[in-house]
Amino acid sequence: MKTTLLALPFLLAIAFVVYAEGKLTPFAIWNALPAVAGFALLWVGRHARLAAYRIGCAIFAVVATLFVTLFHLAWWLDWHGTATGSSTSALAFIFVPIWACLLASIAGALAWGVAWLVDRHRLAR
User: Which residues cross the membrane (predicted)?
Assistant: First the structure.
């Protein structure tokens, strides 16, 4: 039951990415990879001994999945001309997974660092 609840948001995000792109294409799979990587890292990180690792993995998973999902929502609803504002706007689908993983890596590393410092400070007391 816990595994199902943990996987549900990621499965919904992946399903929305495929739905927003119209069908299952190589680009849909490419754009779903950050959510898959986020879930995989969260799954592996939940067994980590240190809380800092678990926090960093969770932040990576959330940020990568939200970034991809929000981009596809903006595209699907055409917020401020995301889809129709430029003839080359669809090229963003090539770079969104890279941006999502880069942003999530930075956020996860920062969260890991803060959690590690807090844990270290707490142990020093």
Answer: 30-48, 55-77, 89-118
